[in-house]
Design a protein that fits this description.
single chain, 201 residues, 2 domains, Tetracycline Repressor, domain 2, mainly alpha
């Protein structure tokens, strides 16, 4: 009798193997062969799920999103204004080993996204979704007088400038923490973020 395969279970197994490869090597080491080796299977089995390297990369992005989404969703939940903004931004930083792995994977993906127009558009859209999550909190902080909403001399431009500064600063800080963790332990990252928020007040 033919063996019955639970495709949902197998897909989860593939997803876990993809994640282990990403955690070890980043996107640079992601290949059908590497995932098959991690899974203890043949590349032929993987081609049943992925017709190309692009499809494998897209699945890898889904896996990373599944790993990242709960952390982001829980950050600052139910907290608004400046404090909610602070908590949301802290969740991006390299707070622990799990965050370090997630950050290394995302930074590794940038190389692919810069060389591939479609992936680049996907990453740009992801950043826009992130900015959209920050805007209401920035608005609340401006309304409360905790942030200066007129950095450019008018409110709308000031808000967008703040959102852009916070996005660029936190992700730049992540890169610094990955390259030099001794200089940028989590406490120093928090202090740098707090100093920026104070400067924008």
């Amino acid at each position: 009798m033919p063996v019955t395969v639970d495709h949902d279970v197998r897909r989860r197994e593939v997803a876990e193997a993809v994640w282990r490869v990403l955690a070890d090597t980043g996107f640079a080491g992601l290949s059908m062969r590497a995932v098959a080796r991690e899974l203890g299977a043949t590349t032929g089995l993987l081609t049943h799920y992925f017709g190309s390297k692009r499809e494998l990369v897209q699945h890898a992005l889904e896996v990373v999103h599944e790993r990242t989404a709960p952390r982001m969703a829980a950050a600052g939940e139910g907290v608004g204004g400046l404090e909610g903004l602070r908590l949301r931004l802290r969740a991006v930083l390299v707070e622990d080993e799990e965050a370090a792995v997630l950050s290394k994977v995302w930074v590794g993906f940038w190389d692919l996204a810069l060389a591939d127009a479609e992936l680049g558009r996907s990453e740009a859209a992801r950043y826009e979704r992130w900015r959209e999550r920050l805007r209401p909190l920035v608005d609340e902080a401006i309304d409360a007088g905790d942030l200066n909403g007129e950095l450019n001399g008018e409110l709308e431009g000031g808000r967008e400038t703040i959102v852009d500064i916070l996005t660029a600063f936190t992700h730049g800080l992540v890169v610094q923490a990955l390259f030099d963790p001794d200089r940028f332990p989590v406490e120093r990252q928090y202090a740098a973020l707090d100093a920026l928020l104070a400067a924008l007040s």
